[in-house]
Amino acid sequence: MKRFAKTIFILMLLAGITVSAFSSGGAATAQSSRDSNSIKELVYPLLQTRELLTFNVLYSQRAEDSENLTNLTDGLLQTDPWGSLLPALAEKWSSNDGGKTWTFNIRKGVKWVDMNGKPKGDVTANDWGTALEWILNFHKNDSANTSMPNELIAGAKAYYDYTKTLSPAEGKALKATKGSKFFEMVGISIPDDYTLVYTCVAQKPYFPTVCLYQCLYPMAQGMIDELGGPDAVRAMNNTNMWYNGCYTMTSYVQNNEKIFTKNPLYWDTASSRFDTVTVKMVDSIDVAYQLYVSGEVDYVQLSESNLSTINNNANHQFHNYLIPDPMSKYSYQFHFNYDKRNKDGTPDTNWNTAIANTAFRRAWYYGIDLTNYWRRTNAITPMACENNFYTMVGLVNTSDGTDFTELVRQELGMPKMNGVTPARLDKAKFATYKAQAMRELTALGVKFPVVVDHYIAGANQTALDTATILKQIFTDCFGDDFIVLNICTYVSNLRNEVINPRLQSIAINGWGADYGDPQNYLGQETYLDDNAYYSATYSNINSITAETPANKDLIAIYKQYTTLVKAADAISTDLDARYKAYAKAEAFMLDNAIVVPCNYQVMMALGKIDNTSRMKAMYGIQDMKYKNWRTNVNGYTTAEAEQLRQVHDQGRK
Asked: What's the pTM?
C-alpha cells in the first residue's frame, strides 16, 4: 500500500465498501524481528516545557499531554509508518450511506488494566458512549475537545448546550446509560457491547481520521465509579487511572522522569514494544545532547551550535551519525493581530490600520526571506524548513497521490520549491506592494516605520537569539523605513500576559491537524465562527464590529474566504473535488496574506531509532506512540538512515 492509500480506501468507503481488518502487524512485521542490537529499555529525553498537565486523555488539548497519553490509551484506529489507517480497538469500520453513518466493530477480549497490568474490566463499545457523553458534558470536561463532535456528530451540539443549562450537580450526575438523555439526543448508538455506530450531521467521508484524535477515545464508567465520580477523574494520576494502551506509567516524578512499562495484557501481541521507556525531562536540548554523549539517552535533537560543531568537524565522533528528525506535523505561520491593543488597553491604531491593508500584508508574503531563521532549526539543510502554505504538507492526497499543498501551489501559480531560494520570494512584487502600502497608508495617517511587537519569554536566551536574527531579517528584507521588529518580553505565560490582552502584533504559531481533512486547518481562520481557533484567539478579527474605511477591505476578504471554505466543506461525495475547492480557498487566503507561512520544523538528530519505523500521524495524537520502533544500540549512521528512507519511500512490501 503506497502512501496515498488512505485516500483510496476512503473513496472505497464512499461506495459502501467495508474496510476489513488489515493485519495490525502491517508495521509490526518489519519491526518485530528483534535481535541483539535492538534496544529493550529505551531512554528518551523531553524538554521540561513539555511536561504533561493531565492524565485524562479526553480533557487534554496539548501536544505535551498527548505525546504521553497516546502510549497509555488506545482508540479505534491507528496509523502505519506511511500514514495509512489501520485497525486498533476497532477490527473494522464501514459506511453504507456515503459517510453519514459509521459503524465500528469493537475488538473482543481487550482489557482495561491498572498501573501494574492487573485487569480491571473489558473494553466494550459502551466505553465510547461514556467518553462522548463526558466530552459533551459542559460540567465534566470544561468544553475541552467539543468542537469536532459538535461539528460532526448529529445532536452533539444540542446536548452540549443542554448540559450548560443544568447545575453542576445535575450535569455531573448524567451518564451514557440506555434510555438516557444523551442517547436520546446524540447521534451515537450501541446495538451491542461490540458494535458502535455514529451518525454524522451530513456525509463526512473523513470521519475515520477523527478516530486518531482524543475526542473519539474511550473511557470506562467502571473507572469513574471506582475513583468516586467526575471530580476525582479530573484529579486522577498514573497510580489510579485505567489503561488499555501499549504501556502503563509505573513511575512519575514531575519535571524529572516518567517510566512506561509494557502492558502485559495489551491486545496487539504482534506489535513490537520496549520493556520500558524512561522519559527524562531536561531543561534544554544542549543538556540532552550531553546525556546522549555519555550514553544516558538514546536519542537527541540537535541545537544549531551542536549541529554546526559536529557537521564542521570531519573527525568528530558523531560526524557520520547525523540523521533527520521526523518532520513535525505542525505548519507554522505569522498570525497577525488585527485588533491590537496598547498596554493601557487602548487600540494600537497605527498597527491596526497598517495590517488591515492588503498591499502591506502582501509585502510580507513576497518580501521576507526566512532562510537564516530556518538555520536556527536546521543549519545543514535550512531549506527543508521552507513553508509556503497554511495546511501542512502530507495531510491528505488526491486519488492520484497528489499532495493537497501541490493543489494550492498550482492555484497560486507559485514556482516549485528548488531547495535553494524560497519559492514565493518575488523582489519585483515586494517593491510594488511596499510602495503601494506606504502610499495608501500614509494617506490614512499611518506613521512609518510600522513597529511590529513580537513577544518572547524574558528568561529564554535561545528565544532571544532567534528573535534577534528575525529582527535582522526584517531590516534586510523590508528596510527600516518600512517595518521594524520590536522584541518584547513576557514573564511566564504568553497567553495570559500577551495574547489575551492583545498586545502582540504577530504570533508565530503552529497548527497540527486533529483529523485528516483541510477543514481542520482552513476552518481555524473563518469569520465570525466560535470554533475558529485563530480567528477567535490570535487574529481577533471577530472582535472588529465597526467597519471603517481602513478595515472594510479586510472584512470583505475574510467574508469571501469564509464563503469559499463553507462551499468546499459542502462537497462530501467527491474527495478530489473537495480538495480542489479547499485549495482555491487556501490560495485566496495566501494571495491576500491573511496569514503568512513561516516554517516547518525539520531538525537534525543523533539517535538509535529508525525514524522511518515510527507511526506517521500527520493528524491526531499518535505520532509519539512507542510502538513498532526499529532500534540499534550502536546508533544509525547518516548513510544507514538514508538507505532506510529510500526503502521506506518505496512503500510497504
From this structure: 0.89
